[in-house]
Amino acid sequence: MPVTRTGSTHADVARGSENASMGSSRSGFATLLRAWRDRLSPADAGFAVTPDRRAPGLRREELAQLAGLSVDYVLRLEQGRATNPSAQVVGALARSLQLSRAERDQLYRSAGLLPPRDGTVSTHVPAGIQRLAGRLGDVPIGVFTADWTLVWWNAAWAALLGDPAVLPPSERNLARALFGSGVAHAAMTTVRSERGQDAFKASIVADLKDAVSRYPRDVQLDRLVGELRGASDAFAHHWAARTAAVQHTTDRKTIRHPEVGDILLDCDVLIVPGADLRMVTYTAATGSSDAAKLDLLRVTGVRRPVAANWPTTP
Question: Which residues are in the HTH cro/C1-type domain (predicted)?
Answer without folding.
Answer: 53-104
